[in-house]
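Everyone, describe these structure tokens:
***
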Amino acid sequence: MKRICSIYRCSKKEGMYLYLDKTDTVESIPKPLLKQIGRTELAMTLLISEEKKLARANAKEVLASISDKGFYLQMPPGEIDTQMREVRDQNSKL
């Protein structure tokens, strides 16, 4: 499966992105979600296939979520992720 997606940067949290099918608009997502993500700004348009490597999301999950829900919301990396990276980096120097 392949899909051309519009990817929007969300103003509420750094690193939060909304993925939509290119033919959909931000107004098509549920109103409560719109309030949670704040203003959106188009970051990029991208052809996503199941084999595509994405920086912080699994392409198969993105495509499945867009098919099922009409959108995919990428959350920013958590504090635990940051701490785990720091521990990994320290241990790799030993």
